[in-house]
Amino acid sequence: MTPLAHDELAAALDARLDPAARAWLAAARHETTTEVDAIATIFPAVGRHVGRGTLDPAAERGDVHAWTLDDAARTLLLVALGARAAPELAPLYRHGDAAERRGVLRALAYLQVEDGVGLPLIDDALRTNDVRLIAAALGPFALGRLDDAALAQAVLKCVFVGVPLGGLAGIEARVTPELCAMLARFVHERIAAGRSVPADVWPLIDRHPPTTELAAIEAELTNPVGERRQAAEAALAARAHRS
Questions:
Q1: CA proximity to 93, closest of 51, 136, 131
Q2: Distance CA 193, CA 227 (A)
Q3: Of 21, 39, 71, 107, which one has the fewest beta carbons inside 10 Å?
């Protein structure tokens, strides 16, 4: 879950840092506001100084939606730049490693950034197979700006690579009948291949249940091929469990 209020983010990070990390971050934030181009050398060093654990101590480290300490620190550094942040985003993203790119993507929700600056970064992240980058890309900035077709493709990408849909905060408000039908067709394809279906597709599909696609899925319950029949039974049982 994104701690959208800036003061909440700063407070959550402050509570997780030891005195040395807290002092380093304070100095780094000051330097970014006073030294031109300082962000380029500070940004890569963040993880080494503040750590890479989860911002929420209760979060599982493998949760791709969970913010990390370095995510939060990089976001606060970019916020400290104010209007100077926007032209720094593309170079920081382009030259950064995966953690630095994730920090740029997380920060978009906190910055005044034109679509022409932010959306190319989102598009690039969504072309990767890095589940943490994809999850970070589909934050509030993207959900507020991607058109329906682009968002539908992004959601389908999440399903293919294993990004849990339940962690996409606000996705429910963007679900369209077309997206539901697309996801249901994906489910049917998986069943036809005798494969399992991620259970978290069902809450989205059932926001606008696609009659034709669901009928095709239910028809698999009588398919003479045992693997397809079993896959349909498991998928529909998961749907019933989540309803």
A1: 136
A2: 8
A3: 21
Interior angle at CA 51, CA 47 and CA 56, nearest 5 = 120
Rounded CA gap, 212 and 209, in Å? 9
Distance CA 88, CA 84 (A): 7
Around 131, how many Cα atoms within 13 Å sit in the side-chain half-sphere? 14
As a whole number of angstroms, the distance between CA 231 and CA 222 comes to 11
User: One digit per residue, pLDDT tens: the chain, 243 residues?
Assistant: 555 667 889 999 999 999 999 999 999 999 999 998 999 999 999 999 999 999 999 998 889 999 999 999 999 999 999 999 999 999 999 999 999 999 999 999 999 999 999 999 999 999 999 999 999 999 999 999 999 999 999 999 999 999 999 999 889 999 999 999 999 999 999 999 999 999 999 999 999 999 999 999 999 999 999 999 999 999 999 999 876
Largest CA distance in the chain: 71
**Backbone torsion region of residue 56, taken as left when φ is above 0, otherwise alpha when ψ lies between -120 and 50, otherwise beta:** beta
Crossing angle for the helix pair 98-107 and 115-126, nearest 10 degrees? 140
Q: Is the pTM of this model over 0.90?
A: yes
